[in-house]
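Morning, I've got a small favour to ask if you have a moment. You're getting the sequence in one-letter code plus the fold written as tokens. Thanks so much in advance, here it is:

===
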Amino acid sequence: MDLNLAGKHALVCGGSEGIGRAAAFELASLGASVTVLARREDALQAVVDALPNNGTQRHGLLVADIAATDALHAAASALAANTPVHILINNTGGPPGGPAHSAAVEAYLDAFHKHLVANQALLQAVL
């Protein structure tokens, strides 16, 4: 498939490593400008520096904690006010791996907050 994302801006959560980093690279290779979001600025900067860039793309980073919903909303709102977000990748860790029956309820509540509540805050911020 030939997908051209030139002129589009993507916000990729959990963009410092793993699936988020891979998504950021793929979106950049398709021509999108990418902002990666995570807690560690140094790791984010390394990703931004390594992203493919055709010379017209403007990659950036946003340091934020998915668990801090109000601060996340404020940071994403400020980003979207300057650069509209066309693509939102909601990616963060889930409950720890292992058998579901032995996982603590708190681990699922934390994942629920990170995946659903934080994504709602992000969605409201970028629209």
Observations:
- The longest helix spans residues 105-126.
- The chain has a mean pLDDT of 95.
